Amino acid sequence: MSNSSKRKEESHLLMNGGVKQSTWTKVFNSKAVWEEKDEFLDVIYWLRQIIAVILGVIWGVAPLKGFLGIAIFCVINAGVLYVYFSSFQQVDEEEYGGTWELTKEGFMTSFALFLVVWIIFYTALHFE
């Protein structure tokens, strides 16, 4: 652990009264201190999966079809996570390999999950 990350953690622990925060607490706290790189990448991954399920259900119920649905999903998925890590959490993107690495973290698995959920809901509600 580098000196700067140790100082961040120490100051963060002092602000919290010496109590270490859980991952779930950090997810919803702006500018949380992430001790481990993998912990934040896991959060990005699972937030993407949650977004994929929610949008898949909405698209299936709507009923949205075709390339427009896929394009809107890609924009929302990438946009929401970009705003989350750059504005809400304000992490140093270079620490994680750059903006592109964070933006694509878990994207393909969330895309596959989105398609499965979308197809299941669309088929169940709009076909006889």
UniProtKB/TrEMBL annotation:
It is found in: Endoplasmic reticulum membrane. Keywords: Endoplasmic reticulum, Membrane, Transmembrane, Transmembrane helix. It is a multi-pass membrane protein. The chain crosses the membrane at residues 43-61, 67-85, 106-125. The keyword Transferase does not apply. InterPro entries: EMC6-like, RCAF1. Signal peptide: none annotated. GO terms for cellular component: endoplasmic reticulum membrane; mitochondrion. GO terms for biological process: mitochondrial respirasome assembly. It comes from the Eukaryota. PANTHER family: GEL COMPLEX SUBUNIT OPTI, PROTEIN C20ORF24 RAB5-INTERACTING PROTEIN. Belongs to the EMC6 family. This is RAB5 interacting factor. The lineage of its organism: Eukaryota, Metazoa, Chordata, Craniata, Vertebrata. The gene is RAB5IF.
